[in-house]
Specification:
The structure is a homodimer of 249-residue chains. With 249 residues, chain A is mostly helical. Helix content of chain A is 58%, strand content 0%. The first copy, chain A, binds a DNA duplex (30 and 30 nucleotides) through residues 20, 41-43, 46, 50-55, 57-58, 62-63.
Chain lengths: 249, 249
DNA sequence: ACCGAACCGTACCGTACGGTACGCATCTTG
DNA sequence: CAAGATGCGTACCGTACGGTACGGTTCGGT
């Protein structure tokens, strides 16, 4: 575990990595991306980074500390993509959402992200889930906060409406990513192509607007004969719950 | 669990595991669920199942073969959840979709499923991804085929409409699962009880119908950029979201 | 009764990893 | 320049794992 020089001097208590440490962690990241968990041994890191194992243990204390440092290092690298100017038109808002969706897909499908998620997931069995919590906080929740601000701006402008922002974001996330992330984590290589990502980003944002878009403002160019009649009757009552669940496990 | 299935006597062409082998694999599964990848060593399996390491190697040839056998065994256990009677009313169709969503959430959040996915993901780094492919084929794609049939039946009945069935299913999957699966894989323990799964199932199916539901008018051309923006207006599902129970925490 | 196959328990081997210790070169600091 | 700190390279240790071998036991076939 790395230690700050003084525990109050900098609010950024993390990512206080020496350039040399950064270089070592970069090499470790390369090993991890290439060979996965098994390839990330102290001896290999030391040889790849031309440093000593003793130095590694002095810096990071433990192998878990080393892994955590790798994750923290990578997380600190992609800090704060852009605050993004507040959108004044719905067009700009949609464009920002599409851009967010595309960024999300690109990041999630990146080699480094996949390797780190695989590492954390593989290590997360049991109950500690230390690395998993780290990845979740630094990666997922960070991007969630960013998107949450974007959604809130759109809602205050009246472009969309929702009752629960977190739920709205989860819906947006599901529309964008679907099962792609798990597929990629499992090693599937579905039709790689950047164009597919932009198409998927647009489609998911359109669907999100169809669900959460505010009324009166057509989110998309009005194509004729797209009008659905009232679907409100579908969800009038569903109270009568027929229990038809087959428990199997 | 399944029977002896001598080769040729039954149509069970795959996963022909002896009962004894099944018991051993069951013990291995327990070890995997409890302790993860690290706990699944040949010595531990042998001791837990009261068998010999040599027998393990004779049966499964290799450690990878053993892991693959564990996955195949579990996959064969949850075979054919239900043929599913064809729905004749939209009510029944929606109910079947909700049931599917609930089952999907329950399965994905189960300990065994999480352990197997973690195992395959942790092993999937690199390029082979043998276990990942196995999990994908036996788990994900199997459930996809089942849901695909369901969607197709609903489309032929005119309850929903889509151009690409696979795309429609992916949307449904994303609406149901969102990022829950990856969160669980990373060790996050979302504070939702089983009842929330039914709520989530209903909500996601409602959203799916809002996107793909057939409403008696002209069918959607491209299924994208044609969202029923006006429906978001007169829907009353925002009120539905208010639960009777106060939320903990 | 005999035999061979399957199998259990244990011991064994080679390897690889986490972690530590030592020697030496380099750099900082007074 | 002296002294200390930092870090590299290598060797080393204990452990644990994958995989193999061997003796002893059970059980079905003939």
């Amino acid at each position: 575990m790395q230690y700050t020089a003084q525990p109050g001097t900098d609010r950024e208590d993390d990512a206080a990595f020496t350039p040399r440490q950064g270089a070592v962690l970069e090499k470790a990241l390369g090993l991890l991306v290439e060979g996965g968990d098994r390839a990330l041994t102290t001896a290999r890191i030391a040889r790849a980074a031309s440093c000593s194992k003793e130095t590694l243990y002095k810096w990071f204390g433990d192998r878990d500390g080393l892994l955590a440092a790798v994750i923290a290092y990578q997380a600190g690298k992609v800090r704060a993509p852009a605050p993004g100017e507040v959108p004044d038109t719905i067009k700009a808002f949609q464009s920002q959402l599409v851009s967010f969706a595309h960024d999300l897909l690109s990041v999630l499908s990146g080699d480094v992200s996949l390797a780190l998620n695989r590492l954390a997931i593989g290590q997360a069995s049991g109950e500690d889930a230390k690395l998993g919590r780290l990845v979740l906080d630094r990666g997922r929740n960070a991007i969630g906060r960013r998107a949450g601000q974007l959604l809130e701006a759109g809602r205050q402008r009246g472009f969309i409406q929702y009752a629960d922002r977190d739920e709205a974001f989860r819906t947006l996330y599901g529309l964008i990513v679907s099962d792609l992330h798990v597929r990629l984590l499992l090693g599937d290589r579905p039709n790689r192509g950047k164009d597919d990502y932009t198409a998927q980003a647009r489609k998911s944002v359109d669907q999100f607007f169809a669900l959460y878009g505010a009324v009166g403002r057509a989110p998309v160019k009005n194509s004729t004969a797209c009008g659905p009649a009232t679907t409100a009757k579908n969800r009038s009552d569903r109270r009568q719950k027929g229990k038809r669940h087959k428990e199997r496990q």
